[in-house]
Design goal:
The chain is mostly helical. Helices cover about 70% and strands about 0% of the residues.
Amino acid sequence: MSGEQSSRRRWAGRLLLLLVALPGVGVCVLAAVEQVRVQLWKLDLRDPDPAVRMQALLRIARERDRRAAAEVFAVLAREQDRAALEVAGYAVMRMRDLQGVARLRERAETGPDDAVSARLMIYAARLSRRDCRLTDWLSNTAASAGPWRRVGAALGLLELGQPRGGEMLIELARQAEPAIRALALGEFRRTAEPMAQAVGRRIDWPDAREASADDPRWAGLRAFWQRHATVPLLNDVLTRLHGRDEKWHQLDRLVHSRNKLAPWLAPEAPPAADPPAPPS
């Protein structure tokens, strides 16, 4: 074998080893980048600026990443800024870690009676995956003195798949001040509208800001709920809203990837032909 052939073989062997090693190197680099990103999230969650903490919580919520779960739980427990507390509750719900149910419940019970407490109750019920063990807590809170917590508890019962939560909600919203009514109807519509579509009905919703307690649309909403809000229908809608079918999830990912790559893969369109001459 000549020296030139031997040199070529050595270079070919080195190239082959490089090609074999590159995927492993890429995986290691990606893993390192991910670890750095998680550590940056954890640092941001301890930042004294609430805006920085909120941005980190929103990123974690968007990606449903549990690797910073302990730090998110710590923020939920100690957060004093009410806006940041609401985002922390949202992140706990999005992470889908069932340990968060009790933590959300505990924070919902402390602090002032406001929209944040109501939303924490909704997040706890939604995260619980319709755990009936929350029923007594929500039922008792729905009969309490705080108007925000009453609405949050009624919405929580609705998230547990119990139609009576909707009945409570209609009456509470009818008598509530505009800000509370806006929360009640905004969250209620997320569930009631798909139910109405399923049975082929249309709901004429009261105005969240201006409807009076004797607006006839409240009676129409109540009549719809009493007639059509069955346990099977409500739970079917909740499953579609909050459940995750893995096959459909993978299909959605494929469609999303196809749409992202389409501009690169589509052949260049041929130049448009000149329009035909008008008849003489």
